[in-house]
Amino acid sequence: MANDTNRFLAIISHSKEYGFIFPSSEIYDGLAAVYDYGQWGSELKKNIKDHWWKSMTQMQENIVGIDAAIFMHPTTWKASGHVDNFNDPMIDNKDSKKRYRVDHLIEGYVDKLKADGKTEEGEAIIEVMEALIAQDDFAGLKKLIEDHKIKCAISETSNWTDIRQFNLMFATEFGSTASADDADNKVYLRPETAQGIFVNFLNVQKTGRMKVPFGIAQIGKAFRNEIVARQFIFRMREFEQMEMQFFIRPGTEGQWYEYWKTERMKWHQDLGIPAEKYRFHDHVKLAHYAKAACDIEFEFPIGFKEVEGIHSRGDFDLTQHQQFSKKKLQYFDNDLDESTGKPIGNYIPYVVETSIGLDRMFLLVMSNSYREEELGTPEKPDTRVVLQFPPKLAPIKLAILPLTKKDGLPEIARAIMNDCKSEFKCFYEEKDTIGKRYRRMDALGTPFCITVDHQSKEDNTVTIRYRDNMQQERIPISDVKQMIAKQIR
Ligand code: GAP
After folding, report:
1. Whose CA is nearest to atom 10 of ligand 1?
2. Domain-by-domain residue ranges, the chain?
3. pLDDT value, residue 182
4. Ligand 1 centre from 171 Cα, in Å?
5. What CATH number labels 4-71+186-366?
6. CA 65–ligand 1 middle distance (angstroms)
7. CATH class of residue range 396-488
8. Tens digits of per-residue pLDDT, 318-338?
């Protein structure tokens, strides 16, 4: 599917209307590229987190998780290369004073060409842009912008400054007297969670008696002063990452890189998301730490975009931290070397990283699940909006709906609620017609609803209604908990 702006806008407004995502501090008109997760959004987000955590730690015998602090010693970011290299090429429009990330400015222009049917021309421009970015050829990039007379959306002029690099890290200060410029007190909000893993490599390896190859996983907030922050939660200034650093013997990085590419793609598709909506994209310009890198891209309504990165980082990070901290970050490998018959000995492990944005995964799940369906007949048309979340990720698993507010039906419904709520998230609702209640649960992505009616009093059965096909059947009340638990497993 090409760009589908309307669908994207519908997802954004649905997210707000049904309590998934709100603009941050909205009563003060919001804060650019910062969002709050509402009552159902936070449940969905937590379910994605738990699913990732379980697959990357509990299901892996050689991966453990940590939770490092957001603040780290400032030298961490010098060693990691972020102080010197975590930059994006930017260009300012002299008339509007608006600043753009160069690749985003050109991509925006190409999107318009494609919308006008000039797909080949657009793709040729992207190819040239990628080659220029790979060579850090800023003069060439500026010429590309000028040659195509790319305009600022605000001033509608092509009056551009030269291209310059801007660092994306947020800084603040420790202590009460310092100013933010005081280098001694300056601390950064971490721009990636990975460094919290690298600086703890030996702590975990020694205390956990971990043997290479092994991994350390972490979920946490990261912060980037994205200059062009747009596209809802796709590009935020405060976001969450789910990262895993896999420590390996040097020389085995090729095989582990391929292994994690396959494993991570499998993780996505095991959620029931169609394979054709995914693709790999190899990086043209490698990040300062990477020896090889690719993205897993998903077909969002705004086109194919990165959701996860797999990076072969070599020994860059541990070597840098060893050098800056002057602490040895080596591993003693006592496996026998095949040629000498002696232990392999000390080395700095290589790293293959998997790094997925939690908010982007949230947007992926939303985009893949959102459907507007035409129901009813030509005489009596009807529509519904349904979120077809994989049941294990759905914020509410089971809605319990007494048909009426009287005749003892709420009591039976409450008893089912009390039985089930310790196992999975349930929602009790007795207001409105049953049809309206079903529609509301569809819009929240609740996979199962049960209705308690007068027959329930006679034969201890309820009607279960399935969200996706809207089929209904009667089942014994005694089967409800087990049946839903099995479906969400
Ligand atoms: N440790 C490696 C690293 O941080 P990255 O490609 O810069 O690599 C990894 O980021 C993932 O984090 C991306 O694939 C994306 O899903 C997510 N991400 C990065 N910047 C983001 C932003 N501004 N807003 C939301 N998610 C972001």
Report:
1. 355
2. 4-71+186-366, 396-488
3. 57
4. 19
5. 3.30.930.10
6. 19
7. alpha beta
8. 999 999 999 999 999 999 999
